[in-house]
Amino acid sequence: MDWKTTYAPYLSWKKEAPLGGEGVLVGSDLTQEWILPWWWSRYSKHNAYPVTFIDMGLSPEMKSWCLEHGSVIHLPIADPFIASQEEVDPALATLWENQSGRSFWNIRSAWFKKPIACLQTPYERSLWLDLDCEVKAPLDTLFSLCHHPSRLALSLDMSSQTIYNSGVIAFQYGCQIIEEWAHLVFEQSHLFAGDQDILSALILEKKLTISKIPPHYNWSRCYTDNPHAAVLHWHGATGKTVIAHQLQKENLDKNF
């Protein structure tokens, strides 16, 4: 099946103007939705921007929860458009497993839906936050960064000058790079481990200059402790374990 043709309506900015203003996007499917209440409790403690939840396959119960806390946009994109493990060069597959662990194959499809999800935004200026990002401060500064000519702001991985982390993205409606990124995930998912690898390659290939998000707004759990981190990114399986332990402790505290 030609997945790119099938999903063509979702791969470009809508002709009608966005609702305007500023807002936050966060996406999830059934396997990760248990994190949503944790994410919301941290985000809402410091911020009041409207939130749109991108439904990548939520349970009915969690979809109702999302509607109580914001708006919901359903993204009916099937997983098979992503190259399977069998369709990836074995040498590349081994490299990716060594970097991210074998379990990453189970969540990889959700990563590649991110640029398509961004294109559905109802806001003039948007902030995408991965579900495992612990918001610890107001996020006002980030929206101003997407006024850059590229209409896009990302943080560099501190171990690289060419790899951007897509866990936190500030962007303006109509950003051309987001649209090109969405098209590439259909064409090159067999060549890249995740969505941010494709985006970083696109920026490098086109020699694009984008706005830089300060590191403390996307602080990796792998970096040194930072009490000033505004967004702490609990990525990977280890990060999810930390989140689960936090939730367990909070539930125990409620019972005493």
Give structural notes.
There is one protein chain. The chain is α/β, with parallel strands linked by helices and 256 residues long. The protein has a single domain, classed as Spore Coat Polysaccharide Biosynthesis Protein SpsA, Chain A. It is 37% helix and 18% strand. The protein is built from 10 helices and 10 strands. The protein has helices at 3-6, 36-46, 60-69, 90-100, 108-112, 114-118, 140-145, 176-188, 195-205, 236-254; strands spanning 22-28, 51-55, 71-74, 125-129, 133-135, 152-156, 164-172, 211-212, 219-220, 231-233. Helix 8 (176-188) crosses helix 9. The protein is globular, with a radius of gyration of 18 Å. 36% of the residues are buried.
Mind sketching the topology for me?
Layout: H1 3-6, E1 22-28, H2 36-46, E2 51-55, H3 60-69, E3 71-74, H4 90-100, H5 108-112, H6 114-118, E4 125-129, E5 133-135, H7 140-145, E6 152-156, E7 164-172, H8 176-188, H9 195-205, E8 211-212, E9 219-220, E10 231-233, H10 236-254
